[in-house]
């Protein structure tokens, strides 16, 4: 006899689990099938803190969000079946699932497809060599299995995935020799690019890989500059010694099941490729079949979770578990949350556009887009960068991104974003900072520093977010690096703070000569800094 459920969900990632929780909490019998041996989708690879606001689980690391969702799903009575590959979806809402060596058939009164997306690849001579991997694969190796993907790595792609994974590679003790992108501008959040740049990793925009070297595995890579038609320019080759090439060149929705079921589809480059045609809440052309998360258009995990909840609410009303009024009330709140995430410079409507000014009318940093860091002659134009007596926050957040944990984190009101979540943060002039460090630790982009420009005699102090091991110790003398990753001056560690409330973001305070207070933005040991400089000049 075929087993029946109110809701069958395919995919136990952020959107699938969120949909399951919402549906189960309203009394529905829910099953989630996932082909992996662990639930959570990409969340357990995401060790960085999320953007957004409290409603979007901002400043919480993806791995912790995954744990929260699994706990909520368990408490709601959701049945999660793992190592279960859905191989068929049919118009009458039947699914075929391969579990072990057998095919099982299930019937759903409603279906939610939350299969996510797959990594894109690019081809070049040598691209099939061992050592050419996707950024997602690198994350799996590092963050799920504790294995370094390689020792010396070149990253292709400067979208958020390429930037975030590059930083995580550095955290895992790998050497990232360069970030490369054929596009003329950095594609991801500037704060992600900045935190990679200040460690000393160079960016090569308008460049692409022209060859991977090696016989049995990658031993090197050649990149070349490209013209406005993305064709390699003769004589512009640059060679790097690497053992791994990491590709972060976009994602494609895994929409095959929806196509198989007969849902109306479209090729939509803005949504990532072949996607189902859906209404505003994710319902496809087949009544009772919904799509949520990246399968219906590539966005951040925060958006996927809200889309999942919306689908859960819709199936509840579809099956009579809530009234239309109850559905509309819930959806109105979720729509507002989703809309707030779709604002700012990285909103879907702005994809592919070159924005010259922020929403406040401040010129965008050209250096950030071209080199991965804000130049010294640009940084002072932003409202979070101020000079005042005593310790105060310096907020180097220069793009309109939907994020506001820093405003909530400060107990003294030193930071203001205002009512609009994409406003640039302001360092409040007449506030009194108590040097608690909560703003530094809460910033998902690691873009806040506590600066005392006159800490006595001829030195200043700078408190930095620090997420590397081993931690420096008080009294250590190393090198302060600038926003561009180049040596600024010698720096002495005067304090290292680690608290549970900081959630693994350590606060390292360094003393530097006064004139470098607004330049020193990272700390390295002398040995590491010397090695990076040697590589940079090789």
Automatic annotation (TrEMBL):
It comes from the Bacteria. InterPro entries: 4Fe4S_Fe-S-bd (IPR017896), FAD/NAD-bd_sf (IPR036188), FAD/NAD-binding_dom (IPR023753), Metab_Enz_Cyan_OpOx_G3PDH (IPR051691). It comes from Eubacterium oxidoreducens. One of its GO terms (molecular function) is oxidoreductase activity. This is Thioredoxin reductase. Residues 387-420, 424-453 form the 4Fe-4S ferredoxin-type domain. Pfam families: Pyr_redox_2. Keywords: Oxidoreductase.
